[in-house]
């Protein structure tokens, strides 16, 4: 079988690229491993009429191009939802982002004073050029607040010491937030800035959300792609990508849903598959040092235990971060708080307890029955339900949910990028796992959008690695004139000496 573009993975990046290519009359085939769901980690699972999110996904972006895409796919099905989340620590609940006066009050006067002095010390004597998560957060909040509100949860999520996690991850996930900004946000009246790029994502008060979960966005996107002529093959495991240098074409080998070996010939390959797995399957083989770099990349897996509880909602937060080390659960979602349509029965609550682990460790390999019992026990221990009220549940395991940002990841990724650029010019990496960049779905979508622009133009107009954590594209140099407010945004080629924003209001 032949196609113009073969896309590996039907997550936000893969389906964004597939839909835009199909709209432009490019022959495209998307190969997805999951036999049932599209959307990747942004899918919405279903169990007995209940809908639940795999990880929780707020729909908010500083990029107008991304917001316009969402509006095009789901023009009438996006809810405006209040953002609400808290931290559970020491038997108490704290608002997150931290409300300084509430946090300091609940910690007690002595600990509060020590936290303030710790923060002041960090501002006066910061760690110069922080390289790890611990030093970065201490600079923003002080050592005592780091130890209280960041250390235990982060190490629960990643399964590693905070000093082993790159500062890049902290800078992306808590960008623009410090104790000072949190205090200003709590004390001063907040007006939405006219320039959306000035918004601190961590402090947003509301977001949009598809009425039946994020999977609704990608299910409709997949349908629209197919209506435009694109092909979607479910239950397909890609086993290798063979590059023919003379013709500059690809043969993508995969095992289909019936277990039959198949192959697609394509002019371009767009991959959102984990970078480590892609490199293993490339032919001609990459250089030994590149193979070693790929093998060194790490991933964190996680699982969600969904519990149906016969009771009213015990909390209204979208989710609660569980910092208490006495339980294994890392975060608890309330799916009705995302959208009332996620929970079909008014007298039931539906919670998702998230456990972070490595594939084939003790937690991962536990039976579903044991995991449901663990989640039930910990939900009761935290005080969010009575054991007798838990009436049902199910388990969803998610492999390679998070690329790990350890000390060496950036060096390994740079080694791989150089090799791919030189030897495989029509192989395009997009998305979280494809680029080994732990960012939100709007970042994944923007890399896909720019990748499509490159393919349509038949030249490299954009360097996809210049998309930042806010789904904005940057190159060094002077800024081009921005469009007037209200002007429709289109993607324009970037010259080496120019900078342009793809988000404007």
Key words describing this protein structure:
single chain, 505 residues, alpha/beta, FAD/NAD(P)-binding domain, Polyamine Oxidase, Chain A, domain 2, 3 domains, seven-stranded mixed beta sheet, 21 strands, 34% helix, globular
How is this fold's topology laid out?
Blueprint lengths: L1 E7 L3 H12 L4 E4 L12 E4 L2 E4 L10 H10 L4 E5 L2 E5 L2 E5 L3 H8 L1 H16 L8 H9 L1 H7 L1 H8 L8 H7 L5 H9 L18 E5 L3 H14 L3 E3 L3 E8 L4 E7 L5 E11 L3 H6 L1 E2 L4 H8 L3 E11 L9 E4 L8 E4 H4 L10 E9 L10 H15 L7 E14 L5 H15 L3 E3 L1 H5 L5 H17 L20 E2 L18 E2 L6
Parallel strand pairs: 1-2, 1-12, 2-9, 6-15, 10-13, 12-19, 20-21
Antiparallel strand pairs: 3-4, 5-8, 6-7, 10-11, 11-12, 14-17, 14-18, 15-16, 16-17
Content of β-strand: 15-25%
The chain-level mean pLDDT equals 86
CATH architectural label of the largest domain? 3-Layer(bba) Sandwich
Based on Cα principal axes, name the global outline: globular
CATH topology of the largest domain: FAD/NAD(P)-binding domain
Give the % helix: 25-40%
Largest sheet: 8 strands, mixed
Query: How many independent structural domains?
Result: 3
**Rg, alpha carbons:** 23 Å
User: What is the name of the CATH class of the largest domain?
Assistant: Alpha Beta
Number of helical stretches of at least 4 residues = 17
What does this structure look like?
This protein has 505 residues and is of the alpha/beta class. 34% of the residues lie in helices and 24% in strands. The chain has 3 domains: 2-45 and 59-71 and 213-297 and 407-466, 3-Layer(bba) Sandwich (FAD/NAD(P)-binding domain); 97-188, no CATH class; 299-403, Polyamine Oxidase, Chain A, domain 2 (Alpha-Beta Complex). The chain contains 17 helices and 21 strands. The strands form 5 sheets. Strands 1, 2, 9, 10, 11, 12, 13 and 19 form an 8-stranded mixed beta sheet that branches. β15 (319-322) and β16 form a beta hairpin. α1 (12-23) packs parallel to α10, α4 (109-124) crosses α5 (133-141) and α12 crosses α15 (409-423). The longest helix has 17 residues, at 441-457. The model is unreliable at 181-189, 198-203 and 476-505 (pLDDT under 50).
